[in-house]
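To whoever is on call:

I kicked off a structure prediction for a single chain this morning and the downstream step that reads the tokens threw a length-mismatch warning. I double-checked the sequence; it's 386 residues and nothing unusual in it as far as I can see. Pasting both halves so you can look.
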Amino acid sequence: MSLFTWSRMSCRALRSRGRRTLSLFSSSGPSNWSKVVSDAEKIVGYPTSFMSLRCLLSDELSNVAMHVRKLVGTRHPLLNTARGFVYDSKNNLQMRGLVVLLLSKAAGPSHAASDLLAQDMVSGIYPSQRNLAEITELIHTAFLVHRGIVNLKECTVSDGPVKDMQFGNKMAVLSGDFLLANACTGLAQLDNTKVVELISSAIGDVVQGLYYENYSNSEERSPAEDGCDVAAWEDQAFLSHGALLAKSCQAAMELARHDQEAQRAAYQYGKHLSLGHKLNSDLQPFMKAGAAAELLPFSLSAAPVVFHRQLVGEERWLQQLQQAKTQRNQQDYSQLLAAVKSGKGVSSAADLCCYHSNKALEAIQAFPSSEARSALENIASAVTKF
């Protein structure tokens, strides 16, 4: 049985099994999602929505924010990143830290952690695990800021003066480095060599993933180059989007001195949840109907496009790509979007999303039944809602 045949079956089973747990996610509006996350925060006894604000509101970054005001009126992406810290209609809550805390609570204390005082736990979570959740969010935020660096060669007059764009790049580098330095300082204070090794390797994975991501989106890269199959997409997506959460989940188990089996289960949950979430994000432009779809930008390295390219063959794909380039108007790939939507690439990507959601649900069964585990199951099921 092939992966995608199995995933179609498991996706149907997931929809049947998850009818009750998915009721809170039945609306696409942000209010229901916010309510579910708010309920999950009550379970862990910590408002994770603003867990990195302590660093963001420091004197150093307050001074940076004053300088970033100079970018108002330009199209530098650092402005959108800054706005996202306050409110983002799609991802207005910091989910990575919340998942780490929920897993910590779901796993509970281990028998090997006799010298870790249970009375130090708050809502069933050790202080070191809460610090790890905050560190995870700081690292993610640092890379979000670094993503705000633009290629000055591609800037146009409408983007703003070149000196302002150069200034924005400097601010993105300095503020991102500041957040990353604070995260590394907190990481050292956890005083756990294995945790330091795990998170440090996750930082390296993200850097490598972003390098591959930028390379695949580069204009200098030939569309006929190899490496655009589904396996390569999953490898790259894990590096840039999954490694940090997967290894943070494993590190949370290590801090409570859980055994290798619990650490492996936590790692698998974080890995598959991240890949499912990335697939859900990639699918959004292809799931909308009518004019709304044309307003959503999509990448040629998005999962549905990669599936479409693999299914139609390289020769047909290059023909479609060339037609899109000759007929596009201000980077309008509407014809290519329609071609991908009419093929099986979208359904294949949706099936793979269901597959990863099921694998995350399977991994979390290693922990005892609890409200924290139920919340993690709801989150894993939610990534299949498009």
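Update from on-call: the warning came from a stale cache, not from the record. Cleared it. Sanity check on the structure: The longest helix spans residues 162-189.
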